[in-house]
Design brief:
12 helices; single chain; disordered C terminus; Hypothetical protein af1432; 366 residues; alpha+beta; three-stranded mixed sheet; Molybdopterin biosynthesis moea protein, domain 2; five-stranded antiparallel sheet; 3 domains
């Protein structure tokens, strides 16, 4: 299988991994032919890449981070409960988080079980899912990334559960923001941006009134846009005042945001998202946490075409859990000429390194 940008699918391409709907239904099975009409429908759903079949890669596979059934069940709860909160806010009622907290706690428990079982570096690229709303799947993805980073950092079970609750609810305040502002494709006005920024305070006020959620959960919503140098919002506080969990969620939040399709820009690849985090490491984000995150995620996922030094081109065929930046690559070209495929384990062959990724994916406008 090979990762291919949706805009560069060639005629007669066939799927190598299924595409799921948000409720867990399979929209397209393995082997489905990607006609122009199907590609257009996928583009409308916000899908920017798919896994296609390619000769010589039939044995490659990556099972993904989350069981599709767990993902679907989690998504359904997040969507229904977030919409219920939005309805109560629209009626100017107090949002009853106590009635919802057990549902969110159950999500965290099931996702945490999946994360703890995960042996490979985390890659949500492997879960190609068509969603109707960004905010719901973003909340779940941030939970997965935050818990995975928490695992790498050595948090205990109780801390992990609290972190997961803070992550899944970090954007609950956005349910107060008008749809036309949340999904605006163009530049936001100052007034619209202020509405977006208010989601941190609104989420905090909503969550802190709950008798069944900890105040820490509320502070995760309040602080996840704060930055170490004080340049964040809503209060502009610095590192010493930002809770550990909020600093973790901040990294997960930004990474998922930039590696997910948005109406105003296409998705970055994982290594591009990581580069963005590193550009703010030590000033915006905790340096040690960014380093830990780099060890947690699959920077170069299975199926990605890469170019190695020495004029070789290949496809990532396996991950190295201890060194995600140095995967196993199946080389099929040398200096532009086809060769019999062979494997290069970058964790063992230290003189070999990835110089660049598939230009089809990497030359997109950021």
């Amino acid at each position: 299988m090979r990762i291919t940008a949706i805009d560069h699918i060639t005629p007669e391409s066939r799927l190598a991994k299924p595409i799921y709907a948000g409720d867990g239904r399979i929209l397209l099975q393995i082997g489905a032919r990607l006609t122009g009409r199907i590609v257009e429908r996928l583009r409308e759903k916000g899908i920017t890449y798919v896994y296609v079949q390619q000769e010589g890669t039939e044995d490659l596979d990556d099972e993904g981070t989350l069981d599709p059934k767990v993902r679907a069940a989690s998504m359904q709860v997040i969507e229904s409960q977030f919409k219920k909160a939005a309805e109560q806010m629209a009626l100017q009622k107090t949002v009853d988080m106590d009635a919802m907290s057990s549902s969110f706690s159950a999500i965290v428990t099931s996702v945490l079980e999946e994360v703890m079982k995960q042996k490979e570096a985390v890659s949500l690229l492997t879960d190609v899912v068509a969603y109707d709303s960004y905010i719901f799947h973003h909340s779940l993805n941030v939970t997965i990334y935050a818990l995975s980073l928490g695992k790498t950092l050595g948090l205990n079970e109780e801390e992990m559960h609290k972190l997961g609750l803070g992550a899944v609810l970090h954007d609950i305040g956005k349910m107060s923001v008008p749809e036309e502002v949340l999904h605006k494709p163009g530049r936001l006005t100052d007034e619209e941006f202020a509405l977006i920024q208010d989601h941190t305070t609104i989420g905090f006020e909503m969550l802190r009134k709950s008798h069944t959620l900890s105040l820490l959960t509320a502070h995760c919503a309040y602080q996840h846009h704060e930055r170490l140098d004080g340049s964040g919002y809503p209060r502009g506080i610095g590192k010493e005042d930002i809770h550990l969990f909020a600093r973790i969620i901040a990294i997960a939040d930004v990474f998922d945001a930039v590696t997910s399709h948005r109406v105003y820009r296409p998705a970055m690849l994982p290594h591009e998202g990581l580069e963005l985090l590193y550009s703010g490491a030590g000033t915006l984000f905790d340096q040690e946490m960014v380093d830990a995150f780099a060890r947690t995620i699959a920077i170069y996922p299975v199926g990605l075409e890469v170019r190695l030094n020495g004029g070789r081109t290949g496809i990532v065929s396996a991950l190295n859990r201890s060194l995600p930046a140095r995967p196993v690559v199946r080389v099929f070209q040398e200096h532009g000429e086809s060769v019999s495929p062979y494997e290069v384990d970058l964790a063992e062959e230290l003189s070999s390194m990835i110089e660049s990724c598939d230009t089809v994916m990497a030359q997109r406008t950021m």
